[in-house]
Design a protein that fits this description.
With 303 residues, the protein is an alpha/beta fold. Helices cover 40% and strands 23% of the residues. The two termini are 34 Å apart.
Length: 303
């Protein structure tokens, strides 16, 4: 997930560095090379003995949902000693540290490393960005306490890409309401109250009519209110995997560019919408393409 965001930001014209561990073999080299090909700084990626963690995707169709099978236990990344990350050096020159809930779910070492990174960032003046991404399958493999770990990371975050389900999970409560908007507002209000460092909460809203026909919109909440994007009709979806990461990269682009919260949510949702037309995890859309989508410009063959 973090790699998807790094590639997205790099392709949007920002400097991005990836910190990770890969297996010292052809698969690891290929993964690092793919990041480097998209302009990501890979100097903080270590190669060690072991295997690459994998996951397998079965793509859904019509009313059959897609399914993911994880094979990440005992990978080089999962086994790496969290003390081996020098966060003071890794975070030098950074403005933001982006973490996702997928990474700590991989195992105890990865969980400890994520918490250490988040808690090291703020004293160094680096703002923390967190994507909830709760992955029950991964937490179950090692009996990890997902809500407790994610709560520690969220406590350091300035912006969180997170939905009502993950907030309720972390806070161990349920916010009931007659309509989704009221529930969302109550959930976000509770998150702001529980986590004083939080300044923004962002989330997409997805309506699924079938595996390849969705509607997508989003909202960006601050402590003073919320701004919302338009709704995109997504018919004939090519690949939805990575859309949330495209959303996160897009919102960050808008915030880093200093164009305001409305632009940030509009750009983020348009980036996520375009990602549905691109095969693979990375969002390869350009700033121009995303802004044209925001403007609703006609789609025609370009010669």
């Amino acid at each position: 997930a973090e790699a998807n965001v790094a590639v997205g930001l790099s392709r949007l014209g920002h400097r991005a560095r990836m910190a990770s561990v890969v297996a010292d073999n052809a698969l690891g080299e290929s993964a690092v090379g793919e990041l480097r090909r998209h302009g990501v700084d890979t100097s903080a990626i270590k190669s060690v003995g072991g295997r690459m963690g994998l996951y397998f995707l079965t793509t859904g169709a019509i009313q059959r949902p897609s399914e993911v099978l994880y094979d990440r236990a005992a990978s080089a990344f999962a086994n790496f000693d969290p003390a081996g990350y020098d966060w003071g050096s890794i975070l030098t020159g950074a403005s933001w540290l982006h973490l996702s809930g997928v990474t700590p779910a991989v195992g105890a070492n990865a969980s400890a490393a994520c918490v250490a990174a988040a808690e090291a960032a703020r004293p160094l003046g680096v703002k923390v960005s967190f994507d909830g991404n709760y992955r029950a399958q991964l937490w179950k493999t090692w009996n990890g306490d997902g809500p407790a770990v994610l709560k520690r990371i969220l406590a350091q975050a300035e912006i969180a890409f997170i939905n009502e389900r993950d907030i309720e999970l972390i806070l161990k409560t349920t916010f009931k309401a007659a309509d989704p908007e009221t529930r969302r507002a109550r959930t976000f209000e509770a998150a702001f109250a529980a986590f004083p460092a939080l300044k923004m909460l962002a989330a997409t809203v997805r309506t699924q009519h079938g595996a390849d026909h969705h509607e997508l919109s989003g909202g960006l909440a601050t402590r003073s209110g919320m701004v919302r994007s338009r709704t995109y009709a997504l018919a004939g979806i090519v690949d939805r995997i990575g859309a949330g990461d495209a959303f996160a990269a897009g919102v960050h682009h808008g915030l880093i560019a200093g164009k305001g919260e409305q632009y940030a949510i509009d750009f983020g949702v348009a980036a996520a919408a375009l990602k549905h037309s691109i095969a693979g995890d990375f969002n390869l859309a350009t700033v121009r393409q995303i802004e044209e989508t925001m403007a609703g410009e006609a789609l025609d063959v370009r010669r």
